Amino acid sequence: MHEDVLRDLSSLFRGTSAACLDGLLRRSVEHRVAPGTVLFDQGEIPNFQLVLVAGSVQLLGRSGAQREVLIESVRAPDLLVPAAVMAASPYLLQARAPEASRLLLIEAEAFREAVAADAGLAQAVIATLARQVRRMVRQAKSLKLQSSTQRVGCYLLSLSERQGTPGLALLPYEKHVIASELGMTRESFSRALASLEPAGVRVDGQAIAILDRDRLIAAAQPDPLIDPDARDDAPGRP
Q1: Which of 49, 131, 155, 165 has a beta carbon 3.0–4.6 Å from 111's, enabling a disulfide?
Q2: What percent of the chain is modeled with pLDDT above 70?
């Protein structure tokens, strides 16, 4: 198990000493979950640092009236909410696996001790936190600066790039879940999709055909500081 986990997490824990990683693995357990599994709920104090090894996790917020919105979708490999673990503070979000996923559960206290003792691990955690903060800033800028049509267009462009099919975007979740992540209602999401039809977008259930990518880019107007993977010339595009 150790060799498999270390291989899958090599990019995440780059620079961490072998002795530190071995110590963390000895105080951890591998966990495979089925679609729909709740990993933790908002308000809980972290007992483990959850490391997403394979699959994806949705981070959701819920109001007192039980209204639920998708804040972010996290893809492997990544640390799930390390800020709460490092601060030993309550989770502000619920984590739910939308698909079969594999995680490593590291004892929270052991993780904090290792971060304090190993400079390589500390730098890896700081780098992860920086990436997560930048994702949140991009999301906030998108909500405040882009119209609903632009947000949907950029989402389709980014999704098609990640999936490796520039002419097709397969929606990974139900439309109302994606709409909540983009900060709109399902009705607004549907209207935005319809408004993109003149830009060469065709909807067939969960499959969105991008018939003219250049026209969609012109309509969505992706900003490289908000949507870095929505542009054909994006650096490091998959």
Answers
A1: 49
A2: 93
CA quadruple 16, 22, 93, 193: dihedral, nearest 10: 70
The SS3 of residue 102 is strand
Q: Which residues contact 169 (CB under 8 A, 6 or more apart)?
A: 156, 157, 159, 160, 163, 207, 208, 210
State residue 135 phi and psi, 5-degree precision: -65, -40
pLDDT tens for 18-70 read: 899 889 989 999 999 999 999 999 999 999 999 999 999 999 998 877 788 88
Q: What single-letter amino acid sits at 226?
A: I
Q: How far apart are CA 238 and CA 235, in angstroms?
A: 9
Question: CA-CA distances (angstroms) from residue 147 to 75, 137, 156, 174?
Answer: 26, 17, 14, 21
CA distances from 206 to 21, 112, 237 (A): 41, 42, 23
Burial of 154 (0-12, 13-18, 19+ CB in 10 A): buried
DSSP H or E stretch at residue 121: helix 119-145
Q: Tell me, yes or no, if the pTM score tops 0.90.
A: no
